[in-house]
Write a structure and sequence with these properties.
This protein is α/β, with parallel strands linked by helices. It has a single domain, classed as HAD superfamily/HAD-like (Rossmann fold). It has nine helices and seven strands. The protein has a seven-stranded mixed sheet with strand order 4-3-2-1-5-6-7.
Length: 237
């Protein structure tokens, strides 16, 4: 008898699994290390975050802004800086209840995926810290080969933002299906759950079989109430 397909468990990252926004925190981290000008960088960082809150983020502009201060760094120095960021900043905002939630899905045999608008450079080690193997994030363009690779500051492919999350997820699922070439059934949107805090994720929340609003922003909370979606907090006692 063929095994049933695992359930697809999708998790937004910022302000869902984390008690904060990793993209914005990266900007504050660069300020704290004296890598960027405090006043100018914070003003721009805050302005981009307000765009996101309004659902109007210029994601290409934000990614370029996020990466510009580190484009000249060698890969080894960049890796060290990123790990310092995760250790000093991100670890403190990883919610214990979020870790338990991810673990509960993994223990149930679900296919766990973090899907986030934040770029892959910032989020790869965060996904690893949650023990999540699969990450779908905004991709980054690179030039060069091997140890000489450098980020250009541009996005590679479709940004993983709003409707782009569906595009990226479907492409990822299709690639997995092509690689499997038969065998056991694969996880799909036909049996899926998404946890998110943001109304920016409404396209994907509408596409999954179970939508869960986690510490939602006001617009998502109103939509969740109207649609009868579960609302829960990962920040309570």
């Amino acid at each position: 008898m063929a095994r049933p397909a695992p359930r697809l468990a999708l998790f937004d990252l910022d302000n869902t699994l984390l008690a904060g926004d990793s993209d914005h925190a990266w900007g504050e981290f660069l300020i704290s290390r004296g890598i960027v000008d405090e006043v100018e960088h914070r003003a721009k960082n805050d302005a981009f975050y307000e765009q996101y809150v309004r659902g109007e983020l210029d994601i290409h502009g934000y990614v370029a802004f996020t990466l510009e201060p580190i484009l000249s760094l060698a890969p080894a120095a960049l890796a060290t800086l990123r790990q310092e960021f995760v250790t000093s900043e991100v670890a403190a905002i990883m919610l214990p209840q979020a870790i338990a939630l991810v673990n509960s899905h993994r223990d149930a045999g679900d296919l766990c995926v973090i899907i986030t608008a934040t770029n892959e450079f910032i989020t790869q080690p965060i996904a690893a810290a949650f023990g999540v193997e699969h990450l779908i994030a905004t991709g980054l363009e690179q030039t060069g080969e091997g140890t000489e690779q450098r980020y250009t500051g541009a996005i590679k492919g479709t940004p993983c933002y709003q409707h782009g999350k569906i595009t990226k997820l479907n492409a990822w699922l299709d690639a997995r299906a092509a690689e499997a070439a038969g065998g056991d059934p694969l996880a799909s949107l036909a049996d899926s759950i998404l946890y998110s805090d943001s109304f920016n994720d409404l396209p994907l929340l509408n596409a999954v079989t179970t939508a869960v609003a986690v510490d939602p922003d006001p617009r998502l909370e109103a939509e969740a109430v109207a649609r009868g979606w579960q609302i829960r907090s990962l920040r309570g006692a």
